[in-house]
Amino acid sequence: AKDGGRNQVCISSPAVSEEMLTPLIVETMLRNALRNKDLEIYYQPKIQAKSMQVVGAEALCRWRHSEFGEIPPHRFIPVAESSDLILPIDEYVLRAVCEQGARWLQDGYRVRMSVNVSSRQFGQPGFPELVRSILRDTKMDPSLLELEITERTAMHDVDRAVHTLTELRNLGVRIAIDDFGIGYSSLSYLMRFPVHTLKIDRSFTAGIQSAVNQNPVIGAIISLAKSLNLNVVAEGVETVQQFDFLRDNKCDEIQGYLFGEPVPPTSFQLTAFESTPQ
Ligand code: C2E
Ligand code: CA
Ligand code: CA
Ligand code: CA
């Protein structure tokens, strides 16, 4: 039976619910959420810096819980990643994102759909085959699907990563290295990875205070990416100053609260921005 008083405590006091959400409880709740389809997918735009066109959308998972409200990914993705539960979650998200991308394409919008792939999912021998079957089921254009793999995942077992990335690339999908710059990729490894995009970690973007930046690292990452012919995306862009700096330094795409927080697909702006939001 439901105890109304106890539930109230959970909702109204973050401190209490924080303590209650032990990994085991989160995992159990998450299993139910997946079954009940309480996981929603929000999309955040990627803007081409020079044209202000919306060229992509990153899918970010949200868990809507009847008692705890909206639980952000950093509270449940790590728990899911520590068990096999991340596998059906990633599969669910991938399928839903491909369905959405195919729908937008039917409406005449070519949006590159980016999906985060957990280390565990990426390491599954059957992962490329799973991607292939989802593309087939959803009739999604493979060139509009981009898989975001963190630098850490790629570096975990380089030879194996190169093999898996090659298989994925052969399906015609795109690959991005996420959270780039905080890990340990050396240039020689980076050159071995058959990827299309580098996503500069938010911590670097946050360091940009003005259009004339003090920190040379971000400029160095952009020129490195350009020399390897990679598409460069900066994440976590929140200010016009950051946008100006990145555009002037030839960063291709911009993602961040400046242009929009992650939103449900029905609220997603598909048309170009006229100017930077003030
Ligand atoms: P991420 O892939 O690095 O995603 C970027 C995170 O930064 C997102 O947090 C996004 O909402 C947030 N963000 C975007 N723009 C800004 C900004 O301008 N300022 C700030 N401060 N933050 C910004 P979110 O949605 O909480 O996701 C956190 C992480 O959870 C993601 O990091 C990703 O690693 C993971 N994640 C989210 N959805 C999924 C999923 O469907 N599958 C898997 N495997 N992981 C996911
Ligand atoms: Ca990401
Ligand atoms: Ca990231
Ligand atoms: Ca991150």
UniProtKB/TrEMBL annotation:
It comes from the Bacteria. Residues 23-276 form the EAL domain. This is EAL domain-containing protein. It comes from Alicyclobacillus fastidiosus. The lineage of its organism: Bacteria, Bacillati, Bacillota, Bacilli, Bacillales. The chain holds residues 153 to 430 of 782 of the full protein.
